[in-house]
Amino acid sequence: MRRATVVFVAAVCAALAGCAENEDAELQEWLTPVLRESGATVLLVTHDVEEAIYLADRVTVLSPRPGRSIATIDGMRGSPGRRDEVVSSPAFNRKREELLGLLRSDQARGAAR
């Protein structure tokens, strides 16, 4: 049986209700087992680096127009522990710094190479 692809846009919470940061964190913690148990392929579109790392198996950084893949790193979906423990871990912080570096790069900003 073929599984459906789910598209989840993370900005929905902020757009509809203006969720506070702790509400976003609670939503992410709730969503983690739902995604794992569903077995579906999920495309998460977000501008939140922490959310991307926490919820994803893989995180891809795209360039601006035209959108091209600059790099893909492993996310930390399924890491043991509560969200606050995962996002404060040294491994998570290394991934966050790597992604932020990619986003600051000339390639991500669309500069000609």
Q: Choose one word for the global shape.
A: globular
Strand content: 15-25%
The number of helical segments is 6
Our count of domains comes out at: 1
- What does the average pLDDT come to? 80
Question: In order across it, which strands form the biggest sheet?
Answer: 1-2
Helix content: 40-55%
Largest sheet entry: 2 strands, parallel
**Strand segment count:** 4
Radius of gyration: 15 Å
What does it look like?
This protein has 113 residues and is α+β, with helices and mostly antiparallel strands. It has one domain. The mean pLDDT is 80. The N and C termini lie far apart (45 Å). The strands form 2 sheets. It has a two-stranded parallel sheet. Helix 3 packs across helix 5 (90-104). The chain is globular, with a radius of gyration of 15 Å. The chain has helices spanning 12-17, 21-38, 49-55, 83-87, 90-104, 106-109, and strands at residues 5-9, 41-45, 58-62, 69-74. It contains 6 helices and 4 strands; from the N terminus they run E-H-H-E-H-E-E-H-H-H.
Task: Characterize this entry briefly.
This protein has 113 residues and is α+β, with helices and mostly antiparallel strands. It is built from six helices and four strands; from the N terminus they run E-H-H-E-H-E-E-H-H-H.
